[in-house]
Task: structure prediction
Amino acid sequence: MKPIQKIRKNVLLPFFAFIFAFFIGGLIIVFSDTEVMGNIKSPGKFLTSALSKIGNSYLAVFQGSIFDINLARGESFLKVSIHFLKPLLLQLL
Result:
């Protein structure tokens, strides 16, 4: 087997699995939302609301797990850690 074929074989399956997972997730988001499903009689409204709901859902997943530009910048890991460790630190004194 040529190296390019090996790379293609090792890359294509995870790539398509990733795309398929996003597609299935989008379908689940659309079919589980009553507001979007209420617009199913009007194709234009349905597609607009479905794509909006899918986009907002995946944006929320991205912001919650990776990076949120709207998150307060002043709150650092050290400040939060000290806040939650105050009772423990006071017990040690």
